[in-house]
């Protein structure tokens, strides 16, 4: 069977006609399969949503009562028949509850990766490669320049900076869903046990992570007098808060940001970032290559990112590749998490 008969690109998103559902639709849909809780993938107003239990909880927390008319949750590895299609969710390693979507129809196996990474992450299940005929991959960091250092090295840089400047607060921009919790968990694993001050945008999500068994240690909401009432330490906030009035309560802090885009020095300078931390929840160039090989797929669809370089890499290896121009899905920084 032709892959184009199983998944079709429409203005409202990626549609599966044999199952009569959409994956991460851009507009309210009767049936939606949602890969994860970031706002460029999980939108409100769907009649029925299929996702993991953690993603359902995240959508309820962020979108409220209008998140969906009804949720159907699957464990990783569990399969459900929708119309003529068998649907299975597998770990994507992106954030808590994130999933790849395996579609099986008349002998054809297609995998929609959603957003994913291969780095170890103490806050979510690790990515599992799935053998398939067609693999749909993101390419947010799909250029050879994006080869990241080990996450532990970046955590060590943050802790070393805090030790060198104990008289200054460190205020680090980290997206409220996924990145903030990962940064906290990595710091705890490295031995940092002091209380961390949090911008209000992330506190609710941190509590939800705790409910799903992710231990984050002592966290405190950052209040107007927090910086004066305690010794300088670490405060986390959304990247957008680094330059607004919220960060001014910390005097002259060391401003940091945790993002894959911090590998580009110009981006760090534009944001006034003194301590760029190259920590991403997306696959880098090497991980994209390895994942494509691990799936054994002969056809690769590439979406929301740098398609040209990855298409060329596939072509040199005899793999059929084409861009899947999904509008409305931003990259890690542009999603403004």
Automatic annotation (TrEMBL):
Domain Metallo-beta-lactamase: from-to ranges: 3-153
Alphabetized Pfam families for the sequence: Lactamase_B_2
Xref: InterPro entries: MBL, Metallo-B-lactamas, RibonucZ/Hydroxyglut_hydro, Xnuc_lig_assoc
Single GO term (MF): RNA endonuclease activity
Stored SUPFAM superfamilies: Metallo-hydrolase/oxidoreductase
NCBIfam families, sorted: Xnuc_lig_assoc
Name used for this protein in its record: Putative mRNA 3-end processing factor
Species name: Rhodoblastus acidophilus (Rhodopseudomonas acidophila)
